[in-house]
Amino acid sequence: MNAKVIPIRTLPPVHAVPAVPTGMPAPSGRLADVRGRPLHDLRMSITDRCNFRCTYCMPKSVFDKDYQYLPHKSLLSFEEITRLARVFAAHGVEKIRLTGGEPLLRKNLEVLIEMLAGITAHSGKPIDLTLTTNGSLLAKKARALKAAGLQRLTVSLDSLDDAVFRAMNDVDFPVADVLAGIDAAVAAGFSQVKVNMVVKRGVNDGDVLAMARRFKGSGHIVRFIEYMDVGSSNGWRMDDVAPSAEIVRMISSEMPLVEAEANYSGEVAERWAYRDGSGEIGVISSVTQAFCSDCSRARLSTEGKLYTCLFAQSGHDLRALIRDGRSDEELAAAIAGVWGTRNDRYSELRTEATARAPKIEMSYIGG
Ligand code: SAM
Questions:
Q1: Start-to-end CA span in the chain (Å)
Q2: Going by DSSP bridges, is the β-strand pair 194-199/221-226 parallel, antiparallel, or unpaired?
Q3: Which of 19, 138, 184, 331 is most buried when burial is the number of CB atoms within 10 A of its CB?
Q4: 234 lines ligand 1 (CB under 6 A)
Q5: Is residue 101 within 8 Å of residue 70, measured between CB atoms?
Q6: Is 160 in the pocket of ligand 1 (CB under 6 A)?
Q7: Residues 221-275: pLDDT tens digits?
Q8: Is the CB of residue 233 below 6 angstroms from any atom belonging to ligand 1?
Q9: From CA 227, how far away is CA 198, in angstroms rounded?
Q10: d(Cα 148, Cα 142) in Å, to the nearest integer?
């Protein structure tokens, strides 16, 4: 008999319904895992769809016209997302980042933002609400997002060279339209935008200096991200990674940089300020300098699975608990049970072999 071979890339995500421990204390805002890492950040993927086909994230060879995206009923509703966000806030989450897929593709996103913007962190401060976008729909939506209460924005832009950028997003999308999106965001009141550039050796590492020059003195912060082995579809190889140290050296040789202090413990980007006071850049070195030891991020997939690591192979099905009629207290207990036993530190243990193991795609779990 011929067994059907399922390629690794199409393996469905594995998940289990988490236990709901009894006798858990009420959330104190100070949940910690077994390594003492607090729960501070929550990334919520609100759609698994994207209008780009970035070759390192959603390559066309996998995400083609036959690719099965999640059906609408699988997605967490706005009410479910907001309810979970409140429970996470009670446990100490202070920052929520909406991502995807491309979050601006989610219909009526402004309504969700308004609902989330009303949440108060356990500390009494309003939740720090931010969003990562490819910028393609920003010119149209920036005003509505600001009016709904979005505080900050990150825009991904991998090159200022139009040919390189069009080839990387693989849908022929021009640089000029992303820059127009950033301008629209500034006009709408997002004064300081973060710009994410994933650097892939031999593809766009020649554009690093141009990117730094373009945004130096603009008030915006470019963050150079090491190309990571997320998911199983991008064919990652260590040779494709341009180490952050090299990028800092390259920029600093033309525009001198000095290391700056982190804004808070667990911050993903390492900060470097221009010596002449004209702003800063960030580098995110999750491959060459793993920062698992102070990782305080939880991730919620579009369909409500909780992941405690970007490189996880399985998640915890919170949607099942919600749709089973569980109370907020029970949801809080389940989350405490998951976070309290968290022990993962994938990036610290990464090898070429672990990088080849099947993992959840970034478009599903949220970047
Ligand atoms: N669609 C939105 C966007 O383009 O920003 C949000 C989702 S995207 C998955 C979030 C971020 O993850 C983007 O800045 C993207 O460049 C980054 N990313 C995706 N795949 C990556 C990889 N393999 N290594 C490093 N960063 C990656």
A1: 41
A2: parallel
A3: 138
A4: yes
A5: no
A6: no
A7: 999 999 998 877 778 899 999 999 999 999 999 999 999 999 988 888 999 999 9
A8: no
A9: 6
A10: 10
